[in-house]
């Protein structure tokens, strides 16, 4: 019997599944194993915790694994990829396939098939695939450059807009919520905290931005809506490229794309997901947006089984 290991290694959590050819045998979630987000020591401890939990729950040793597939953001960054290959390779048998997190999510929605996937969690990314298997992406350049609509982006943009609201004397709940979250009592302390080295984890502010939006705060609502609209714009960029490729290959008009979503922000921030869908439908009412987020680790499992 063959055994397969699948991992969705996000910036905050890592979801792991051990399976055979027919069914899932064990599943666990631990902290991140992404070296851009945590120290080598913490990533190693999280990895060992995950593998031990899978072995305990399934009775299967990691040395018996035939194929592993791991999806993570930053898979092309040496710090991330080299660490994962070395540490997982030293503890797990068989071959290892390392892919982007958005690619495994795409396979969870459309196994090997045509479609567009919008991922928004701690980070964000958009990926699409043509009917003949060509892949393309937009966004996903990390928090310092892009990651539109992600948890990190929501937190940092919420902070920016809170200060802009103060400058323009616009009422908002955001500043008080940020003061409470950061345990500061003055603007000077907040500015100092925001510019600390290393910087604070702005993704932790995303929850309060969403909470303020749900309470009707107009500043927070605009932040959430903009996150969804920015992701829709990236999805349209990907769709346009895919359609152009398909039409060049076939000589006939390309069909409308189907869009799936994944990630904690897409799963839990309904206003952002709705803003993205509304923006897509404004451009083309025929675009289908799947109603439920997909489970990316199942895409990694599909790839492991079919590698």
Automatic annotation (TrEMBL):
This is ATPase BadF/BadG/BcrA/BcrD type. It holds the Pfam family BcrAD_BadFG. Residues 8-301 form the ATPase BadF/BadG/BcrA/BcrD type domain. Gene3D superfamilies: 3.30.420.40. It comes from the Bacteria. CDD domains: ASKHA_NBD_eukNAGK-like. SUPFAM superfamilies: Actin-like ATPase domain (SSF53067).
